[in-house]
Specification:
- The structure is a homodimer.
- By secondary structure, chain A is of the alpha+beta class.
- Chain A has one domain: Roll (Thiol Ester Dehydrase, Chain A), CATH 3.10.129.10.
- Helix content of chain A is 25%, strand content 24%.
- Chain A has 5 helices and 7 strands.
- At the A-B interface, helix 5 and strand 4 of A face helix 5 and strand 4 of B.
Chain lengths: 248, 248
Amino acid sequence: MIQRAFQVVARCGQQGALLRAPCILPRLNPASAFGSSTDSLVSRFCPETTDLKDYALPNASWCPDMLSLYQEYLEKTKSDGWIKLPSFKSNREHIQGLQLPSGLAVASDKDDCRIFTRCIQVEGRGYEYVIFFHPSKKKSVCLFQPGPYLEGPPGFAHGGSLAAMMDETFSKTAYLAGEGLLTLSLNIRFKNLIPVGSLAVLNVDVEKIEDQKLYISCVTQSRDEQTVYAKSSGIFLQLQLEKESSQQ
Amino acid sequence: MIQRAFQVVARCGQQGALLRAPCILPRLNPASAFGSSTDSLVSRFCPETTDLKDYALPNASWCPDMLSLYQEYLEKTKSDGWIKLPSFKSNREHIQGLQLPSGLAVASDKDDCRIFTRCIQVEGRGYEYVIFFHPSKKKSVCLFQPGPYLEGPPGFAHGGSLAAMMDETFSKTAYLAGEGLLTLSLNIRFKNLIPVGSLAVLNVDVEKIEDQKLYISCVTQSRDEQTVYAKSSGIFLQLQLEKESSQQ
């Protein structure tokens, strides 16, 4: 344990930016799978069979643009290397078999938790989204349809709902592309308001991985690419994962 | 109408930053109350009597820290110039009597809309928050307690939920301090994770108002100020409001 703690301190000391990084830094496990390949991360993240409900599937609330672009990317999963990410009610489900570093786990009622972007379960009212990821290109595309419970200005999505959608898409991308676990920064320039009920497409790229940090950029726009809703970037910190559990 | 449109274009042309600003810029009303005093904005924003439910009131889910700091600021509303802002289900209620510029209003079902930060109505599960505003200091304080439906890493608030809380607090502050209506940018540096169910305090300052833009900064920390959760800044665009309606 002392050795692990020392490694954390040493790691922080090596990087100025991390001196002010999260204090709740988990204890690192020297025997963990740090440096896991993207393929192995993806295969554990996307179980072939599961009883968990996948919320990233079409429902009656999806607008025609969202449905057709979903079908388009689904086709690309068959031949073009894209992967459709499942989306469960909680991150606790996503990390089954992966186990977050122990410092990130606290005791709380597992049954009553929801990942923020699945907080509203009535179809079409809150977040409707699906993320596709391309392992070798280190790109993601998120199809996002904000519902009327995500309102800011009347008739338009709250800027914060888009910020959260970005953070969530960045998080999953950073995790799969390089074990990025913690958001260090998020910068957003808003260009246009997204009408409630319409489709916004987040095009996400991992720009580089350097000094244990992933640099991610995103352009959010309408399907026809004629309207840019926002441009954003984020930096994520790589953290070692605990050993794979025996559950899978 | 042509004159109004011209004014918008001219305004954009004057400011480089606005050349890439929202295309859904509303038509400006030359006869509007642009330049309203903070006092008049606050008095219209905080009706003395209303039938609308105010969600920014204590309930059984509030943790002791949240309750006691709420009481502390409530005392300051009596003698120190602070104002407790009401928080209704939708921004449509907030702007009664103010009317957003016409370009920002679209036809949609009024009865089925919620402001994003009040999207979850079960007490304690989603956003619990209350904002206090000081007109002459141009400061705000938001007491924020994230519930288990706002989860990111197990046991901690999603970074996006804090981003949205910032954007919402910034929005209300920008509006009351100087008719700031649209978020142009939001920059966040995350320092520590916020445990679900605990209190985070957002300390918000309007740094300056220049070239029709409000520059806002925020430090989010624990009540004892020993843990900084995030530092952030935002820029908001001032927009002319339509004339006050006769409803109030």
